[in-house]
Design brief:
seven-stranded mixed β-sheet; 335 residues; single chain; two-stranded antiparallel sheet; alpha/beta; 15 helices; 9 strands; binds S-adenosylmethionine; Rossmann fold; Arc Repressor Mutant, subunit A
Length: 335
């Protein structure tokens, strides 16, 4: 009580903490459901709690509570005592679908090394959990991009828009290197825009197998060369490319590593060639991935600001460094 005003101090409600607490519960329940492959069981006709519990020899009470909680999270629907899949589960949570995301989601629970984040911040030692730039993560990336692999048309329009904003057009003989390409949405969009564009895709072998299929689906396979292996070890050559694209990879590297990568791309570009760096930036954080995620799953990465990229790019020899729409950064190798 404030003796002067005779009023009780205003006490904030702990709403934000309650929300955090709810997330803690939800994560554990979702994890159990993924481990138990609940959606596959429902899809196979085990559509009541009693049926699943009986066929799997699970605890009936725990089974029913899990199913009901999944309904509350909108990851399952219920009519009477029968459960059914919602479209998102049908598409992404059935392990026999090429768009299955469960394997990657399960591996993602370990992103902070099961409680190692505080220690990493104390000591600066990372990566913890897993390292985003190792070959072991190839399956994870395949899961992350399952929608892109399965339906490339859904993102190609946005990619065309990016090239337009950057002032880069497909033309006869335009040579593009896409480093750490993943599903290669941007460079394949450029290949699709003009039959004279030649694209080289660089990533781990497993990723390139899928990216090659996407290129075939899009009808641009003959325009594409695959370069498999570690982006640090594979030679890019000298004076070979008009455009090099680095998409969503540089936020996993330290400033020193990025400067090294930018030097390597600088050598591989023709004079007057363009490097495009697209990454999650500190000025425009990724709503889906907090900055500490990038920190925890790499040895030196973080979302950087434009000025930090500009410094790294200048150190590597680039000029005319432009922030295009606060996302891709365009840099030029002097003619
Ligand atoms: C976040 S994804 C980005 C994919 C794509 N560039 C995009 O912007 O959508 C990162 C990609 O980098 C690849 N990658 C990571 N480290 C790599 C390395 N050391 N060598 C080759 N590829 C690597 C991964 O396999 C994955 O496909």
């Amino acid at each position: 009580m404030n003796p002067e005003t005779n009023e009780a101090p205003v006490m904030p409600t702990p709403e934000i903490l309650d929300q955090m607490d709810a997330c803690i519960y939800q994560v554990a329940i979702f994890r159990a459901a993924l481990e138990l492959q609940i959606w596959a069981k429902v899809a196979a006709g085990e559509d009541t709690a009693d049926r699943i519990a009986a066929s799997q020899h699970w605890d009936p009470l725990g089974t029913r509570m899990l199913l009901d909680d999944l309904c509350a999270f909108k990851l399952l629907a219920k009519e009477g005592n029968r459960y059914r899949l919602l479209p998102e589960a049908e598409c992404y949570l059935l392990p026999d679908k090429p768009t299955y995301m469960g394997r990657y989601l399960l591996s993602d629970f370990g992103w902070e090394g099961n409680g190692q984040l505080a220690e990493a911040i104390r000591t600066g030692k990372r990566s913890i959990g897993y390292n985003a730039t190792t070959i072991e993560l190839a399956d994870t990336w395949i899961g992350v991009y399952s929608r892109s692999w399965a339906a490339p048309e859904t993102y190609l329009g946005r990619c065309d828009e990016m090239w337009r904003t950057l002032g880069i057009q497909g033309r006869n003989g335009l040579r593009v290197l896409d480093v750490a390409c993943g599903p290669a949405p941007r460079s394949l969009a450029l290949a699709r825009a003009h039959p004279g564009v030649r694209v080289t895709l660089l990533d781990w072998e497993k990723i390139l197998t899928v990216a090659g299929k996407v290129a075939a689906d899009l009808g641009v396979k003959t325009q594409v060369t695959l370069l498999q292996g570690d982006l640090w070890r594979v030679p890019y050559g000298s004076n070979l490319y008009d455009v090099i694209y680095l998409g969503n990879i540089t936020h996993f590297f330290s400033p020193e590593q990025n400067t090294r990568l930018f030097r390597k791309t600088h050598k591989a570009l023709i004079p007057g060639g363009t490097l495009v760096t697209n990454a999650v930036r500190r000025e425009s954080p990724d709503p889906m991935g907090p900055a500490l995620w990038f920190y925890a799953i790499s040895e030196g990465g973080a979302p950087y600001e434009f000025q930090e990229y500009k410094d790294m790019l200048e150190r590597a020899g680039y000029s005319d460094i432009v922030d295009v729409n606060s996302q891709p950064i365009r840099a030029t190798k002097r003619s």
